[in-house]
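Supplementary Methods S3. Input chains for the assembly prediction are listed below.
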Amino acid sequence: MPRSETAIVHLSGVSKIYGATRALSDVDFACFAGEIHAILGENGAGKSTLMKLVSGVIRPTSGHIDVDGARTDLSSPADAMARGLICMFQELSLVPDLTVRENLMLGAPGRGLGRLDTAVVERAKSILSQIDGEAIRMKARVADLTLAERQQVEIAKALSRNPRLLILDEATSALNASVVEKVFRLIRARRDAGVGVLFISHRFHEIEALADRISIFRNGSHVETFDNGAYDYGAIISKMVGQRIDDLFPAKPDPVADAEEVISLNGFGWGDTLDDVSIVLRKGCITGLGGLDGQGQGAVLQGLFGLLKGTRGDCVMDGRKITVNHPKTAKSPKLGIALVPEDRKTEGLVLQQSIAHNMELAALGVEGIDAGDPAIYQPFLDALELKCDSLDQTVSELSGGNQQKVALTKWLSLGPRCMLLADPTRGIDVKTKTQIYALLRRLADSGVAILLLSTDYEELIHLCDDAHIFYNGRVVRRLSGADITAENIIAASLNMHETPAAAEGTAHA
Amino acid sequence: MRDLLRANQRETIAFSVLVALLVSYLATHPAGPTTYVMTIWANQCLILALAAIAQFFAVIVRGIDLSVGAIMALTNCIASYLVIGTGAEMTFGIIIVLAAGVGCGVLNGLLVVYGRIQPIVVTLATASVFVGLALLLRPTPGGQIDYDLADALTLDVLGVPTALIVTVAVIGLIWVPLRRTGLGLGLYAVGSSEQAAFQSGMPIARIRLASFALGGLFAGLAGLYFSLVTTTGDAGIGPNFTLNSIAAVVLGGVALRGGVGTLTGAIAGAFILKTIGALMFFSGLPPLAQPFVEGLILAAAIAIGGADVLRVKNKLEVFGR
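Predicted structure tokens for the full assembly:
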């Protein structure tokens, strides 16, 4: 069936604003019946926000959405589902404590709170059997399934609802190539039967293999929509990269050859999140961890800081094997490891307490440091130009940028030998970013080894001496010096191959 | 079978404990396993079981209800005026009593859902209101319940305690059918992962409201049954039942974080708690040591349920539990 003339979903002038961040700005976008429409973009480009709008999870700040040519207000996922807009979410929409069977029945259309529909389970079972999921037991608790099995159940759940528009947000990220190919066969069959498909994937070769059309998003804006095959690989990447900002970052010094090793990780792994990661942190170097969200980078930092149980591999410091099994060990002067965590509001700070109390938390109990002495914090507060009324002010009253300055100062006061930072500039204004960048560079110059996890490739390019790009729990590419380019980072993050021909090879493997 | 046991691991533990306790209770009771002994035991257990069911409906959606005992006190006092007289009058009285229970539950639900206040705060406040009303009705214990009705529902049928028949009926006629509806499933979904339930298109607000209404209904039933057993109205019965209802659901394998546990588990928990109490009475332990031993048994039973924390691999996840 050819593409229809009226769009199933049409967004006009849609913006979505969260506080100070514009997640989507003035987006016009349409998806038609009978087409597979892929969305491509970097982290924070607005892909997931778009999907949430179409599936009724959130509502636009401005602009409007038409479904089948009629103005609508998608007020809830139930409303979207009733119109045949079915989403398979990136954050899994399965209830962990319920069984597979119960999850398949949950929210099945037309039933509401009345008697459960068992026909939907039969439909889902037949779909599961077509995507290698026949071994999944209906009575198993979803929490006991592997990530891949959960995704198979999600796919079956979405397809069993007979969608008119199927929204797949990273639907296949945990599945292996042969299962993915079977899922694609099902999706193509639905497309041919007139269903519209919106498709987000990290894997570029999947998009190449599946999409009819591709839309590119960058920084919350819709850049362009074109037919698959209209542009080559290089042109698509450059559309995703966009403009550069150079003066944000301090000058990058020439790498010191063979700087002294501070920590080296060999064959580090944890559960099925992380496997066989080897990274060397050197004195005075900034080492970057890149890749899309949730590819296992975070576990490297948590593991080094003693938050994970049952890690594999070795951690060597000063030529001796060390075991870090508690943050208290990590921060002791002997090891001197500090972690500035990803979520400053829940993990980095106690929001209801004062700046002074927050800063003392890390230094408390460390030998040789007087946590109550304000002098140990002042140099860093000055360098970062913390804006506050007094140090007795509650942290929750500060802006995001100033909160992050407190979270950084708290650890810097310990004089760490090795600083682990998880996306320290996420959601922070540009001025604070430059201050943090300058401080990191000065710290490195003073001999601290820095491990910087970042989802912003500009930071990897302009700050890091070398960068490890993660994909699916492994380092897929190591870049250093002049090789750290936006093109290389994005290509590795999406696990794209050097040439389109190579990508074809994997897609059919 | 493996899945069934695994999915109902906590209930399986609860039922085994209950059977063991009951056997030792009957063995140590001076009168032995007579119908009379069983009936007294079952009546006491059923009152707490109904209160535990009320608590279950609050806990399963990740809430807690501190007004269970207060609703029991209020409905008990109402019953002591209305559940007497002709058959029609008593029917009317029972309907009013249960409607009062549901009304209290709905009030809690409305404040939680639309007032956006935590259940623990809402029910702490409404508990005082309900007890206040009960005290206005019955400043001192008194009133009367129809003896024939009381006898019919608190003695035995052919040697089987009526309370046990009621227990089975609640499970068979209410719980089993409820489990096969979207509402029954929705209760668990909302408690386990509100986000996943929302994204699956479930009406979260209505489910929460329904669960508090059901909680109110069962608290009303508990108050009514208490009235039948004691045949009097007393506004002061609340606090004990509230705390014991929470202990009972925990003992019965219902997770206080919501989404896990069954109504039958909550009933088993209530039976266990009452049986421990009864066992203590005839155990020969000095009365002053009984609360201590009872506490130890409670703590041990709850610790078994929480043991899976030891398997968590990321230390940060322990804090989310």
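The longest helix of chain B spans residues 87-113. The two ends of chain B are 28 Å apart (CA to CA).
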